[in-house]
Design a protein that fits this description.
By secondary structure, this protein is mainly α. Helices cover about 55% and strands about 5% of the residues.
């Protein structure tokens, strides 16, 4: 064997080749191949490390990792990303596509993002097997075709005045937080996390910082007179920063507001009052749609319109929220 290898080396040299350099190149190629052989789980960690700072909320990274670990990792985790193809992705999605459609759709997008990261990082080549358009869309039904829409339970507009009379009779910080949320058409989380520093009571303005808004954009809320009266009557416990603190400190839980409704025997959820407000705008006023949508801090769906929209219609919203508060205070209770 030694004589044969020596003969092959001499022949290589005679052809102008360098056997030592060839062996080094072969070893280098093997090392490079091994370094590029990443599993899906390794790529998940790499993706999260590179992208975690892009998310405004630290919980997002934890949510991504938790869902990928729960649903994708058992099937894809130990596979090399270079070997993952459409059948592997379908094996993750099909069991939950029609029973947990929203979760499955979100999972597809997250798998696609991880595999895109792997492609750019040179750990795989070719098309992304988790891509929807022109790929999985030809196999799976669209999420909207299989997912049933669940609306938040809301109180009819005709009943909200009578409800407010009874709500104001309820004691406790949860009842006051719910009352304030209804008066301002704000989300429960925005109200429960409200801090005194966000309020200019003299100007009757509540400025919710972008970090606490669903759309990630600062939102100014005009405060109608009943909302100001409510705030001025609240106790300032130990100069705490929270406007609606829990009895043992910290924020109220969303269940606290829901518990108020349960005690009152009302078949609605806190978020449902935003729907009640929207129905009032549409059915009982002449305020334009965009004014109502701005009051709810909804993102503008039309990208062109969003690009040209500079103001927040604050003055118009102030008048509308005053009318809403008046409506809540003057609707006759049920007999």
């Amino acid at each position: 064997m030694a004589r044969e290898r020596a003969r092959e080396a001499r022949q290589a040299i005679e052809r102008g080749l360098d056997p030592v350099a060839e062996r080094r190149a072969a070893r280098s190629a093997r090392s490079a191949t091994a370094a590029a052989a990443w599993t899906f789980d390794q790529c998940v960690q790499g993706f999260l490390k590179d992208n975690s700072r892009k998310w405004s909320n630290p919980k997002h990274a934890a949510q991504w990792e938790a869902t990928l670990t729960t649903y994708a990792s058992p099937t894809l985790g130990k596979l090399l990303v270079q070997d993952i193809d459409v059948p592997h992705v379908l094996a993750v999605l099909r069991p939950i596509w029609e029973t947990k459609t929203e979760t499955a759709s979100r999972m597809r997008g997250r798998i696609e993002a991880v595999l895109s990261w792997a492609t750019v990082s040179k750990y795989r080549k070719g098309d992304n097997p988790a891509r929807w358009k022109g790929n999985l869309s030809a196999i799976l039904p669209a999420p909207g075709d299989v997912a049933s829409v669940t609306h938040h339970e809301a109180l009819p507009v005709r009943d909200v005045g009578a409800f407010m009379v009874k709500l104001r009779e309820q004691a406790g910080m949860g009842a006051r937080a719910l009352e304030f949320a209804i008066l301002t058409a704000a989300r429960s989380g925005e109200v429960r996390g409200a801090k005194w520093a966000e309020f200019d009571l003299a100007a009757a303005v509540w400025t919710v910082p972008a970090a606490r808004m669903k759309a990630g954009k600062e939102h100014r809320v005009p405060l109608p007179e009943p909302a100001l009266t409510l705030l001025q009557a609240l106790p300032r416990i130990d100069d705490g920063e929270l406007v609606f603190p829990a009895p043992r400190g910290g924020q109220l839980s969303d269940m606290t507001l829901s518990a108020v409704l349960r005690r009152m025997g009302v078949a609605a959820v806190p978020h449902g009052f935003r729907s009640t407000f929207r129905d009032w705008c549409s059915e009982h006023t002449n305020y334009p749609r965009d004014v109502a949508e701005m009051a709810l801090a909804h993102a503008i769906g039309d990208k062109v319109e969003a690009a040209y929209r500079r103001g927040d219609l604050f003055d118009k919203r102030r008048q509308m929220m005053g009318d809403w508060a008046a409506f809540l205070g003057t609707s006759a209770p049920e007999a």
